[in-house]
Amino acid sequence: MVSRQPRKQRKKLYKARLHERHKFLKATLSPSLRKKYGKRAVRVVKGDTVKILRGSHKGTEGKVEKVDMKHLVIHVEGVSVAKADGTEVPRPVHPSNVMITKLNLEDKHRLEIIERK
Question: Where are the domains of the chain?
């Protein structure tokens, strides 16, 4: 049985091995994609188009520029924050706060993974 203690939940998240982290990088699909593929959520990859659902950038739509498996965040094109010296840096977004609106199907294996089951 998995513990319900927040302390142990966080520990499991932070101590997860690299090959286990892909499970934490899933994002919900848009209703049209959900109907087409019969899945509720899939793993976010570079090149997907996503819409941000939470936070100060809510409603922004853009392509995924980078997926950071170490910190479990993604960087979306057009989502940035200004530093004190005026330079713009990409704002990390957690995958649970986005909805995938268009899939990047350039990799043939990804389509097989999505249509599995």
Answer: 18-115
* The residue to which tokens 């498996």 are assigned: 69
What number does CATH give the domain 18-115?
A: 2.30.30.30
Tokens of 108: 């043939």
Question: Does residue 60 sit in helix, strand or coil?
Answer: coil
Phi and psi for 32 in degrees, rounded to 5? Answer: -70, -45
Q: Over the stretch 39-83, which tens digit does the pLDDT of each residue have?
A: 999 999 999 999 999 999 999 999 999 999 999 999 999 999 999
Helix intervals (H) in 17-96:
31-37
Distance CA 74, CA 51 (A): 12
